[in-house]
Here is the input.
Amino acid sequence: MSTAPPPPRVPGRRQARTALAALASLAVLTGLAACAGPPRAGADGTGASFALSAGTPEPKGEIDSFTWAVYAEPPTLDYTMAFDYPQNTILSNVCESLMRWTPGLTLEPGLARQATNPDPNTWVYDLRSGVRFHDGRTMTADDVVFSLGRQTDPANAAAWAQNFQNVASIRTTGPLQVTVKLKKPDSQFPQYMATAAGVVASKAGVTAAGADYGTSGGLACTGPFTLGAWQKGQSLELKRFDGYWGGPKGTRAKAGKVVFRFLTDPSARTNALLSGEADGGYLIPTESYGRLKTSGVGTLWFGEGLSTVNLGITNMRGALGDVRVRQALSLALDRSGFVKAGLGGAGTATSSLTTRAAWAAGSPDVRKAAFAGLPPTERDVEKARALVKEAGATGKTLTVATSSIGQDVSLLATAVQAAGSEIGLRIELKSVAPNAFTALFTDPEAREGIDMFPLTYYDSITDPLDFLTNFRTGAYLNFAGYSDKRYDAIVEEATSTYDQDRRLRIEGELQRHAAEQLPWIPVAEWPTALFLNKRITGAPTTIAYMYYPWAADVGASGEGATGADRTEPGAAP
Here is the structure.
């Protein structure tokens, strides 16, 4: 993730995509995506000293309130548009989905008490009874049909619409039962019911809000918090919902209130964490890792991020159209140097476009095969120079977009420039303003004249296909128009395969193809960074916070000021 506004999850880019074995019940679903294993230290050769933690200590009690730093204000909290970090970080605590992603990146029942798969083209969701919306109404199957239907309505331009591309119908089959009919088997659809794609809101509440839904008033959802005061441009409050059904743990939120502060400047965000203006935050600026780690104010944690830093190829009409040039740049990149400088030493150099954790649900043999034979991460400048010469590209010019959005972006662009100069390529850097940099993901015109740009990708589910489907012909993030009919066919085969190990073996073929053809150039795996000061604890360390009600787990650590005796920033002593 970038240190200032990170690359967004862009609307419409999702392809229907954790691994489901010939599922008959939700009991199968709950074990479908194991976590990445025990915490591991950095192993990228940079001397980085970081370890992945499974979680933070359990709270010792409740707390009146805590504050949280986010890098940007959400434009809306309408769940159909929850495609980026700020929206999901907040929304995950207010709105709930049919299924739930856990802090260990597994699936468990959410608003659906079970999901069954009576035939390959049918998913049946049996709902919990007595679940109350924030508007006081009780959840019914009609609310689910309405909520999922909003994702498929072209008028809404939903960010998750493509995840419903294989859905033929969604209908009520009982007061607390919804049946989804698919056009063809889709191993990915049921997984996305744990993300914002599967959110359930009150039909009456959303309808009453009309065009204002998501920007003012309530969200009419079922989560442990309700939407409170929203001071545009400054902060947003969530208040504990006393009518909460309790979730799988059967408990209410430990905090009475959460205040999100919008701090767009990385330095301001860091200073807020150090001063106590904010008690915690995700997406910590990489240049602040060292300062926060040694501050004595709190603890910097790292957890599984399912994120990779890459060099996105946006133009294959020129020199990069020759795979040998893409391979040469990959061979010449100083990945370990970038991890040390650009990621603050917290990361792992990789030649894989997918993270190892994305394969965790597979058998040992499947996981081993997925990474067998991938190119080494070490540099080979001599071989790279020979490939450029062989391709007739010596002296050719390539343009890389860079930005002050964060040092992970700027330093990766510089690393590419250095690598190119060593192997006979001329790399020009084109500086793009931070607000314009995000347009590179959504606007083809913004990419005109640019051959590559640094980007970070995170998975929304624990399945490699989430990433690998991006290089299917016509996929939203297939910026350069890469097209291979064999690759497309393998994507379709993987999508239609429910058996977990069999599907992962198919995805292994996609992984090897991507490693050879390099539609994007992989650089590093990047963990989730979390900072908590001494007064709070309980937040998950993994990227599950995007779709899991993490704030409900945060409470008093037993150290520092309590919510009752702590002076809020700017308040009179």
Summary: The domain at 26-32+61-297+534-556 is CATH 3.40.190.10 (D-Maltodextrin-Binding Protein; domain 2). The mean pLDDT is 89. The radius of gyration is 23 Å. The chain has two domains: 26-32+61-297+534-556, 308-527.
